[in-house]
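> call design_seq(struct)
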């Protein structure tokens, strides 16, 4: 097929030399390389005992924020879902009922809100798009799981716990600096 760029290279298979057919030099070379690395400084961490220090703008699992009174900020406007290039966000909006003013800040709220963490590429566009300061990416890691369905995070995992409020002010500052 004709190439659209001139970057493609035709690779030809050449005959192996006698030494190459022996494989021994290649095996010894590989072993020498392995032994050399045994004495070098390790670049890997023994996770989970040793946790890696992430950059201040590292983007991990999302959090749906509450306001100072503990009410959910999200108004289910859908802007985060529309801006998401991976189409990882889905939600169902509902009207706030009388007596629920202490639960939801706006008259409309997300009855369900889900992020498929297997689709998410942690670009942060949902955070950028949100007009209500409702969604932020934290420095938390996604836990490993065997079941793919468990990577769909619902409100029970995303909405911040009242007694475990997450300080995102430092994060916002780092974003501005970046
Ligand atoms: S971080 Fe990016 S990919 Fe992930 S949910 Fe937000 S917009 Fe979508
Ligand atoms: S998180 Fe923000 S952008 Fe997404 S639906 Fe809620 S208010 Fe709208």
């Amino acid at each position: 097929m004709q190439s659209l760029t001139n970057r493609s290279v035709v690779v030809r298979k050449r005959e192996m030399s006698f030494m190459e057919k022996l494989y021994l030099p290649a095996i010894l070379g590989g072993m020498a390389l392995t032994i050399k690395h045994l004495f070098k400084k390790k670049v890997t961490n023994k996770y989970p005992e040793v946790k890696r220090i992430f950059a201040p703008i590292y983007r991990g699992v999302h959090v749906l924020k509450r306001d100072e009174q503990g009410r959910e900020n999200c108004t289910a406007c859908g802007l985060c879902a529309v801006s998401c290039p991976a189409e990882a966000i889905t939600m169902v909006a509902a009207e706030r009922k009388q007596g629920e003013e202490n639960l939801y800040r706006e008259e409309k709220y997300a009855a369900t809100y889900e992020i498929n963490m297997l689709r998410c590429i942690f670009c942060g566009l949902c955070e950028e798009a949100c007009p209500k300061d409702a969604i932020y990416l934290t420095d938390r890691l996604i836990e490993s799981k065997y079941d793919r369905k468990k990577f769909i995070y619902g409100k029970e995992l995303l909405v911040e716990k009242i007694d475990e409020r997450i300080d995102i002010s430092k994060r916002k500052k780092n974003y501005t600096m970046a």
